[in-house]
Amino acid sequence: MNTRILVLILLVVSALSVSIAASLLLDIPVPRGLKELAVYYVSNTIRDTGSPEAVAAIVWDYRGLDTIYETLVLYLAIVGGLAIFRVTLKTITKTPIGLTLFSKTSTKIISLLIATISAAITFHGHLTPGGGFPGGSALAVAAMLIIPVFSMYALLEKGVTSTKLVALRGFALTAIGLVALLPVVRGLEIVTNQKFYPTQILGIPVGGSISLYNIFESIAVASGFIAIALYLSIPEEAYKTGESSA
Amino acid sequence: MLKYLVVWLMVFTIYIVFTGSIAPLTLITGLIVSIVLSITTAKYLVEDEEKLKQPIRLLYLVYYFLKYITVIELRAHMDVVKRIITMDIKPGIVRVPVASVSRYARLLVMSSITNTPGTVVVDEKNDYFYVNWIYVSTTDPLKARESISLEFERFASRIFD
């Protein structure tokens, strides 16, 4: 016990002294003002992309093609991962047990709140920080709460299966691809934003294709993560006996 | 029908408060999200619609909330502060019976116990809470209930039972 306290004190003291010494001796310059590139984004983003949110504009417009390839790479990685779990095993369901009644009741309320906030993050991604990936990940958190609290079988009973989720992910990615490809029909470049998609509908700012990408990306990310969470919840015995529950 | 309306109102309010805006975009997307979520989740959240028709329950909830965050929390905090300074502690887990019936009433009682400093519900089984208490003044379940959860239960039963 004494050794632990000594080591703890030693760690705190050394961490403090190293950081104080480094800041005194190295005299690290603090950035003052914006860099040239940042000034460009701050003053031109809304005109270039129709979205005031510079990060969303960079991700889905300035370097939109890059992001779409990235999404594809992640999709292939998930497909590869799922291929290791044997998808086509016989499906069985067990009676869900889960945790106590309290955990279940509070999880019901919390999951609803998480879903609400994830939707808010997604739908305002072209205006405020957030967007498709954070929104989708937040929704996946709700499922990751439900799996331990209600058990995976409760989700399966409600018809939330990995097969359906993977299909939903495929649909969302197809939609992202279509949003990127549609401008080509009118002879525009792939991943064109403002020249093809409206930046406003009835005076409401929609950020052109950015909000569409955000919505479909959110669906793709949420369904992908939930599918993986379900696969990871399959007990090892299921593989040994040749039965799967997801 | 009423349960869908209540869940819709709750989701919509949270959506607006979280976004912090009443711009048309927020209102329209909020409306869509709240309708979809209330249709899909209301049946899991509300069991007895009749209770929603009694606004007196809501008044009790507001009164309880105000009393809880002021008087009850202050009392519990002062007690724990005193015990930390004097190190006058006798920790242990006691068994406390629960009389509240509905799941929301029980959740409210349990959350109230856990949120006040000095007491934490660690488990529940067969209508009993198992409470980790900073100063076990009695191991008798009924007496422990009087000092730990009786006040919470009275309100919880009026609000949710």
Residue stretches of chain B low in confidence (pLDDT < 50, at least 5 long) are none
Number of domains of chain B: 2
Q: How much helical structure, as a percent, in the residues of chain B? A: 55-70%
Mean pLDDT of chain B: 90
Number of strands of chain A: 4
Major sheet of chain B, described briefly? 3 strands, antiparallel
> What is the C-alpha radius of gyration of chain B, as a whole number of Å?
19 Å
Greatest interface and its participating residue counts: A-B, 24 and 29 residues
Beta-strand content estimate of chain B: 5-15%
Shape estimate of chain A:
flat
Q: List low-confidence stretches of chain A.
A: none
The total count of helices of chain A amounts to 10
How many helical stretches of chain B?
6
Task: Provide an overview of this structure.
- The complex is a heterodimer of chains A (246) and B (161).
- Chain A is mainly alpha-helical and 246 residues long.
- Helices cover 69% and strands 3% of the residues of chain A.
- Chain A contains 10 helices and 4 strands, in the order H-H-H-H-E-H-H-H-H-E-E-H-H-E.
- In chain A, the strands form 2 sheets. In chain A, strands 1-4 form a two-stranded parallel ribbon.
- In chain A, strand 2 and strand 3 (204-205) form a beta hairpin.
- Chain B has a 3-stranded antiparallel β-sheet with strand order 1-3-2.
- In chain B, strand 2 (119-125) and strand 3 form a beta hairpin.
- Chain B has helices at 2-19, 24-45, 55-86, 103-115, 141-148, 150-160, and strands at 92-97, 119-125, 128-133.
- The A-B interface holds A 100-102, 104-106, 108-109, 112-113, 115-117, 119-120, 123-124, 127-128, 202-206 and B 7, 10-11, 14-15, 18-19, 23-26, 28-30, 33-34, 37, 41, 44-45, 103-104, 106-107, 110-111, 121, 123-124.
